[in-house]
UniProtKB/TrEMBL annotation:
Domain of life: Bacteria
Keyword DNA repair carried by entry: no
Species lineage: Bacteria, Bacillati, Bacillota, Bacilli, Bacillales
Record organism: Paenibacillus odorifer
PROSITE patterns: GLYCOSYL_HYDROL_F1_1, GLYCOSYL_HYDROL_F1_2
List of catalytic residues: E379 (nucleophile)
NCBIfam families on file: PRK09589.1, PRK09593.1, PRK09852.1
Cited InterPro entries: GH, GH_1_N_CS, Glyco_hydro_1, Glyco_hydro_1_AS
Protein name stated in the entry: 6-phospho-beta-glucosidase
Keyword Hydrolase recorded: yes
The family this protein is said to belong to: Belongs to the glycosyl hydrolase 1 family.
Keyword tags: Glycosidase, Hydrolase
């Protein structure tokens, strides 16, 4: 390829991604209410909490630490951080709005002006540098009041509260935000319902009946947000957001091939099919029938889902999964929180996540072949421990290598015919890890002096990858 051939399409949206609960801090400032992320402990305890039944959603400072409460203090330092994003040349910045800054309890009739004003200031700062915000409406931070008083997304009432919240921010920011996402990694509710669905499975209940009822409520809420977005901001685009992990079958045994197909449909396609195609797919209807799952659906719900589908598909890609029908515990990859077997052909990160750049090309092709809608990679990155040298420099060549290989596969997918809108690597500035609650699991181009024990100056500094990514954006992907 010559220089022009290596470049990405004109208008390609380069940037970075974060979430409010992982970087803002400002725990109780500006009238903010308590959300799910605020009660999740830091460190190894977090995954235990997320996967254990019966979590009570209470803060216990004698037993746990809560790094999200301060995070990296973006709430007070957003101008400094946005200036660094601009220095890298960001075209877009994917972020989320904290629901509890706008409706502290979630069920109020009127929004909190101080919260609305905070995001006005953030958007104005972004536009000062020509950076377009991409806003996730709900990113793992449901108001605790909705969890405790209503049961999270189990409750149909939460649909009304979400629609009120969505309309409030769509109306407020209609001149400032043109790209929206409804629910972050919506299919994560299949594995971690605390994060995505706002409840813990109780010890004595079946997992899937409440999970699928909650999904239905989210699908209705998503369609209502699409409807409101198209009415309030006609020139805006609103998408869904899923985790995508292509499934590799362990061998050619037909039973394993069928198992892999069913798992891929169940995890990768179910939520996308409803939000993009506007209907429940046949395979999930069969699953409901065979597992005696009965979803309460109101008379107009299915027409709403069919009428108000998303404009594009955004997704996170971190790993592929290798599967077979019957596997031993010793077969499972150590760090693959979604399960799956160890893939002997792949290296792993320090946290055991398998590294598979070609899997991103496969994902892009599978998604585009299935839906024929524009795609947007809004999360992808390497969590790693960074060493600060005596002179303050950070030589994170491992991160550069990871991102370079994934970007190469993005270019291949575009050559395959995939319509790809943009790329926002995850954690463009160091932040609190969602899965482990750690600062030491760093993703950013920008280092933040904050540590797992809570100590640190919060000072920002540029890693080697900062300058590398700046060149990538400046050359529109030609210089990797």
């Amino acid at each position: 390829m010559n220089y022009e051939e290596k470049k990405f399409p004109d208008g390609f949206l380069w940037g970075g991604a974060t979430a409010a609960n992982q970087l803002e801090g400002g725990f109780y400032e500006g009238g903010k209410g308590l959300n799910i992320a605020d009660v999740l402990p830091g460190g190894k305890e977090r995954l235990n909490v997320l996967k254990s039944p019966g979590f009570d959603f209470e803060i216990d400072t004698e037993k746990y630490s809560y790094p999200n409460h301060e995070a990296i203090d973006f709430y007070h330092r957003y101008k400094e951080d946005i200036a660094l994003f601009a220095e890298m040349g960001f075209k877009v910045y994917r972020m989320s709005i904290a629901w509890t800054r706008i409706f502290p309890n979630g069920d109020e009739m009127e929004p909190n002006e101080a919260g609305l004003a905070f995001y006005d200031r953030v958007f104005d700062e972004l536009h000062k540098y020509g950076i377009e915000p991409i806003v996730t409406i709900s990113h793992y931070e449901m108001p605790i009041n909705l969890v405790k008083e209503y049961g999270g997304w189990r409750s149909r009432e939460v649909v009304t509260f979400f629609e009120r919240y969505a309309k409030a921010i769509l109306n407020r920011y209609k001149e400032k935000v043109k790209y929206w996402l409804t629910f972050n990694e919506i299919n994560s509710g299949l594995e971690l319902p605390i994060f995505g669905l706002g409840f813990a499975i109780q010890n004595d209940e079946d997992k899937y009946q409440p999970t699928f009822q909650a999904f239905h409520h989210q699908f209705v809420a998503s369609s209502l947000a699409v409807k409101a977005c198209h009415e309030i901001i006609p020139d805006a685009k609103i998408g869904c957001m899923i985790i995508y992990a292509p499934i590799y079958v362990y061998d050619s045994k037909p039973e394993n091939v069928m198992y892999g197909l069913q798992k891929s449909r169940f995890f990768n396609n179910f939520c996308g099919d409803v939000q993009v195609r506007g209907e429940y797919p046949a395979f999930i209807k069969r699953y409901f029938k065979e597992h005696n799952i009965n979803i309460e659906i109101q008379p107009d719900d299915l027409q709403l889902l069919k009428t108000y589908t998303v404009d594009f598909i955004s997704f996170s890609y971190y790993m592929s999964l290798t599967e077979k029908e019957e596997k031993l515990a010793t077969d499972i990859g150590e760090g693959n929180i979604l399960g799956g077997m160890k893939n002997p052909f792949l290296k792993t990160s320090e946290w055991g996540w398998e590294i598979d750049p070609i899997g991103l090309r496969i994902s892009l092709n599978e998604l585009y072949d299935r839906y024929r809608k524009p795609l947007f990679i809004v999360e992808n990155g390497l969590g790693a421990k960074d060493k600060v040298e005596e002179d303050g420099s950070i030589h994170d060549d491992y991160r550069i290598d990871y991102l370079r290989e994934h970007i190469k596969q993005m270019r291949e997918a575009i050559e395959d015919g995939v319509e790809l809108m943009g790329y926002t690597p995850w954690g463009c500035i160091d932040l609190v890890s969602a899965s482990t609650g750690e600062m030491s699991k760093r993703y950013g181009f920008i280092y933040v002096d904050k540590h797992d024990d809570g100590n640190g100056s919060l000072e920002r500094s540029r890693k080697k990858s900062f300058f590398w990514y700046k060149d990538v954006i400046e050359t529109n992907g030609a210089k990797l």
